[in-house]
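Z., the sequence and structure:
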Amino acid sequence: MSFTFRSAFPPALMLAAMVPANAQADDPLVRSENDDYRLEISGQLNRALLVADDGDKTTLLNVDNNNSSSRIRFVAESTNDGPLDAGAAYEAEFTINNSASISQEEGGENNTEAFEARRAEVYLEHERLGTLWLGQGPTATDSLTQQDLSGTMNAGFSFTSLVGGGILFRDSGTGQLSNTDLGDVSDNLDGFGRNTRLRYDFPEIGDWEFRTSVINDGAVDAGAFYSSEFNDLRIEAAFGVGNASELGDINDPAAYDYQMSGSISVRNDNGYNLTFATGHAASRVSNRDDLTFFYTKAGYRSEPFPQLGNTALSVDWGQTRNEDQNNDRSDVIGVQLVQDIDVINTETYATVRRASLDRDAEQFDDLLIAMVGFRLDF
């Protein structure tokens, strides 16, 4: 990302003119108009190259890594010292050529209009009564199946179709591309994600957090989150449930009555870690099988290059059943590597995954998907 300035004045003089003469070196250049609030601006750019082999053709794609999309956020927080605080957040993502949806047929395209409001919310927080959120943001069950201490989430985690989700399977019999892509048959049942909702977070009870929310279309969910340390072990876990009207209209044959899901991740002081996630959505109709999901990851995190930062390596496997059709089974097996570069606040990463689809009366070639990229936080 670069900016070009055209002026008769040298850049150094322009900068000097923009900064007040009495400004100190540690004064922020961006301030809120209201002294009662502190405004923070942050974000990230996460670009990658994705290579997909569908059994007949290999395609190279320049993508935005939707494991942790490019975004910018504005967060205003109250400076009040009393028991009541308030704040607001706006966050937008710019997924130009989304790694979760771009297909091998779109290699020559450049989607420059990709834009989504991730958060647009206000909150009130009381130290004894909890926190109330209103607007677009994470629901009570968001991130239920994404508790992950491996350090490799930017390269890959339980939502396996965020890398190559738009890549179409090739029919083994005809040799033609099918109408089914990886995202059609793979899911991680991660609660109700982000939505327009009213959410309430109860005051923390020890290492536990409890949340509930009512979504704009009437769905209701509740989640419990746990984070603690025992001796040399760090543990993060989550579990939740929701009525699944959010997942589809009651007349939709793919709709579900309710959804339950959760995950747990454990890491010791030596860097070894294990992660498990699972989910179940109960079908609303008799001729539709329940949707199920299972995921596991094993990893190791260390500092072989202390001048750079943490190095994390992991292997994972995810399986989804009955996502698109009864008796469908998709399996995704992968390897992830992430290297922190602390001096420039950047991560470089790589992942390789093989995805397969078993379906009654049809056979498909496996997909081989690889991605390498950089994420820069600012």
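Residues 1-25 have pLDDT under 50 and may be disordered. The two ends are 12 Å apart (CA to CA).

Let me know what you think.
H.
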